[in-house]
Amino acid sequence: MKLPHAILLHAIQVLPWLAFVLAGTRLPASVRARWVTVASAGYALLGFASIVQTLQGRLPWDITPAMLGVLLLAAILLALPVGAAWLARWAVPLPRSGT
């Protein structure tokens, strides 16, 4: 049960960091909360997948095709909010034409 513990422990660290980074953006509070919720769902899915792997007695890299789909979905749910936070916080806006 080391891997599920490590994944969910990192969720406790990453999710507040994501909320903190999003708080420094101009995004409305409802949008920021939605992005944190999406990332939470990604971590929940990743934690669920790692617990299933562990209870089945499989090694972390012994991934079935179904589990690969679950892990890819979890990765997408985690990457989207991080990308949105990066774009909202650090991306340089494009200059407007005609002004």
Give the key terms.
mainly alpha; single chain; 3 helices
Describe the secondary-structure layout.
Elements: H1 2-23, H2 29-55, H3 65-90
Helix pairs in contact: 1-2, 2-3
Written description of the protein model:
The chain is mainly α and 99 residues long. The chain has one domain (2-90). Helix content is 76%, strand content 0%. It is built from 3 helices and no strands. It has helices spanning 2-23, 29-55, 65-90. The radius of gyration is 17 Å and the shape is elongated. The chain starts with a helix and ends in a 9-residue tail after the last helix. The relative contact order is 0.16.
What is the general shape? Answer: elongated
Helical fraction equals over 70%
Beta-strand residue fraction: under 5%
Topology as a string of helices (H) and strands (E) = HHH
Number of domains: 1
Could you name the ranges where pLDDT drops below 50 across 5 or more consecutive residues?
none
Distinct helical segment count = 3
Radius of gyration: 17 Å
Biggest β-sheet: count, sense, barrel? none
Q: What is the averaged pLDDT score?
A: 86
Q: What class do helices, strands and sheet pairing give?
A: mainly alpha
Q: What's the total number of strands?
A: 0
Distance between the termini: 59 Å
Care to give the gist of this entry?
This protein is 76% helix and 0% strand. It is mostly helical and 99 residues long. The chain has one domain (2-90).
